[in-house]
Write a structure and sequence with these properties.
77 residues, mainly beta, three-stranded mixed β-sheet, 0% helix
Length: 77
């Protein structure tokens, strides 16, 4: 699964993934020089099981995130 992180020119420090049967919560900790920094390239995250019907949760806000499936759903990780 690939995720975009709203944080420009920042560097990823740590990614925390918590999975259960209902949801996947992803928290990405980044480091940058300003509040406007972002992780431009996005992150590829490998899940223990495909996301499927589980809800994706932003670990920073606790809010659900809209999922945009890529064209090759068979590679859902």
């Amino acid at each position: 699964m690939s995720v975009q992180v709203g944080s420009c020119n920042a560097v990823q420090r740590e990614t925390v993934i918590e999975e259960d049967t209902e949801a996947v919560e992803v928290t990405v900790l980044v480091e940058g020089d300003s509040i406007d920094d972002c992780l431009d390239a996005g992150l590829n995250i490998e899940l223990a099981a495909p996301l499927g019907e589980r809800q994706l949760i932003d670990g920073t806000t606790g809010e659900p995130v809209e999922v945009h499936p890529n064209e090759d759903a068979s590679s859902d990780r």
